[in-house]
Amino acid sequence: MADTHTPRDARFHDADERPLKLWATDSEDLQILAALAQDAVLPASEMRWQKGPRRFAMLLNRYRWEHGTRQPERVRSLLTAGDVVSVRGQGVLPGDADTVLSLLTLDWEPGADADGILRLTFAGDGVIEVTCDCLDVMLADVTQPYAAPSGKAPEHPE
Asked: What's the pLDDT tens digit per position in 33-66?
């Protein structure tokens, strides 16, 4: 019997709208998440520390850096940290819907064992430090991409 299945090469645009879902468990993984989350914006009211499940979460409007020079797009993404012991901030007013934060980077400062501090740095000197038993960070797109309202990519003048 003849094979009726004809293989087809993958095409770039086949994966165009697939949601991103990445998990970081070491510093190298976190660097990838940090690059993809750079310049994400969110109102301060879109972050939560859930003490019971020991989780910190932020709902971001993430710029889609992974699509390079294409039409500037953003997507709503959930950034979560697990095994959270405590959260503290400086220059950030959690719960304030009028304060819009712009995420610059994520860093991991390892502790004595697997524990450490996940540091989220925002434009304007805002910082959130999330103390965790281990590095367990996930970034997942939760909506379809949409055209960036500004119509352009974020810039970082030197």
From this structure: 999 999 999 999 999 999 999 999 999 999 998 8
Single pTM value for the model: 0.84
HEC states along the chain? CCCCCCCCCCCHHHHCCCCCEEEECCHHHHHHHHHHHCCCEEEHHHEEEECCCCEEEEEEEEECHHHCCCCCEEEEEEEEEECEEEEEEECCCCCCCCCEEEEEEEEEEECCCCCEEEEEEECCCEEEEEEECCCCEEEEECCCCEECCCCCCCCCCC
For residues 56 and 117, what is the distance between their CA atoms, to the nearest angstrom?
A: 12
| Centroid of chain to Cα 40 | 7
What is the domain partition of the chain in residue ranges? 20-147
Mention every residue, 6+ apart, whose C-beta is less than 8 A from residue 13: none
Nearest to residue 38, comparing CAs of 133, 149, 156, 142?
Answer: 156
- Express each pLDDT in 95-125 by its tens digit: 788 889 999 999 999 999 999 999 999 998 8
